[in-house]
Amino acid sequence: DISATITQHFIMSSSYENLAFQRKVNDALTAVERILAIEKKPLIAGDVEHTYGSKYELVNSVSNVAIIAYMNALEKIGLDEDLLKAIDDSTPTTLCFDASTTCKFLEKKVVDVPMG
Fold first, then answer.
1. Which pTM does this prediction carry?
2. CA-only gyration radius of the chain, Å
């Protein structure tokens, strides 16, 4: 039956995507743990017992991390604290970016590749 085959394929595909996502999250958690060098071990929120208020603490922490990440990214492209303070905060502000790249020829290499 073709619909059963499609459904089974979808379930297998969805299951694979879920496993791949879980693996990526676990890899990210390992990287975060290594980078922060903290004694606490970060875990997926759904896998940890928590109270009703814990979700607000989690949102607050994640929001702070996101803000810090944005600030670091903006500083890397030259928008430092002094420039941010100079922005008029009484009106909405839009940041527009323009980037360009160039290429420079470094050297020519000829390599013999054995065919066999």
1. 0.41
2. 24
